[in-house]
Design goal:
By secondary structure, this protein is mainly α. It has one domain. It is about 85% helix and about 0% strand. It is built from six helices and no strands. The chain has helices at about 5-25, 30-35, 40-65, 70-105, 110-130, 130-135. Helix 1 packs antiparallel against helix 3 and helix 3 runs antiparallel to helix 4. It is elongated. The relative contact order is 0.08.
Length: about 140
């Protein structure tokens, strides 16, 4: 594969990604994400993705000029960053799940939890009383 075809493929890809970002900005998707994401980690992920995309493009451009230094190091760092972005996304998922649980259990009082324990006892005793009828 020729070096200039790598840069052209990157240029086409980054152009399509830029078009997608512009479309998302025009439709208000970023405002919706900002309102829904309490941690704002999605914008951190987008920022890291944008920075490394530009870095890959700069390396591809240098490769078209014949400078192949730093390609292996860049490939290793891109692999690390790709894994890092997935890990940041998982951390955001865990934080969101914890936040969801904390808000849904906020109104739970001691009397309500005692009622849950009593209801659990009643349902388990009914289930065990039906065992002789099943056998």
């Amino acid at each position: 594969m020729r070096n200039d075809s790598v840069f052209l493929k990157w240029l086409i890809t980054i152009s399509l990604i830029g078009f997608g970002f512009a479309l998302a900005a025009l439709t208000g998707l970023f405002h919706t994400i900002n309102a829904a994401d309490i941690t704002k980690l999605s914008f951190v992920i987008l920022g890291i993705f944008f920075v490394y995309s530009i870095r890959i493009g700069a390396t591809a451009y240098r490769a078209t000029c014949g400078d192949l230094t730093g390609r292996e190091r860049l490939f290793k760092s891109v692999d690390f960053v790709a894994r890092l972005l997935v890990d940041i996304g998982m951390i955001g998922t865990v934080i969101g799940f914890i936040y969801m649980l904390s808000t849904s259990l906020k109104g739970l009082e001691a009397a309500t939890s005692a009622n849950f324990r009593y209801a659990d006892f009643i349902s388990s005793s009914v289930a065990f009383s039906d065992i002789p009828n099943i056998l």
